[in-house]
Amino acid sequence: MRESDKRPLWIVVVLLTLAAAALWGASTLTWIDVPEGTVFNGELRDELVGADLVSWPVPLALLALAAVAACLALRGIARRLLGIVLVGVAVWVTVLVLGGSAYDVDLSTRAPGYDSLPGSPAKVWWGPASALAGALSLTVAGGLLAWRGHRMPRMGAKYSAPGDTRAGETARDSDVDLWDALSEGEDPTTRDR
User: Fold this and answer.
1) Using an 8 Å Cβ cutoff, are 60 and 139 in contact?
2) 107-136 average pLDDT score
3) What is the tens place of the pLDDT at every residue in 78-92?
4) Is this structure's pTM higher than 0.85?
5) Given Cys at both, which of 29, 38, 65, 74 links 79, Cβ 3.0 to 4.6 Å?
6) Distance between CA 116 and CA 107 in Å, rounded?
7) CA 8, CA 87: separation in Å to the nearest integer?
8) Are strands 30-40 and 43-49 parallel, antiparallel or unpaired?
């Protein structure tokens, strides 16, 4: 197999890994800077990160990592279907981020003593931008899988279990013979085959 045939597969693997990192990063980066003394879920907060506002970035990061293993193990139409699913997930992430539902939180509660301090919450784009970068990586990886996935190399026989043969009966009969020899008190490793 030529190196150029392997390149799209490695591009997909790198893109999925980058998507996982970007989505995980979206959960840890700031999405909203809040004024001093703001109470959120019973705690004084200076900022709200993605994990405070939405629950989907970390599970989708894990999905992207699982897709790495799946794209290496699957073949043909299954790999193309995986690509379509990844594009669908990317569209969903984009709608969630651009729809602004993450910002629908009540930040009007101020701690005593902070009531008179000025300030209002400000959106920060690092977190959402990271989520959108993850969605873009998922889109490109999914598009490549849907378009060229059936042509990409897949794991071959060298990744199969030891002793796995195309003629399953031959391997089974050989195993039965070994167990029969052991049952009869013979050492199957010393006899000639």
Assistant:
1) no
2) 80
3) 888 999 999 999 999
4) no
5) 74
6) 15
7) 17
8) antiparallel
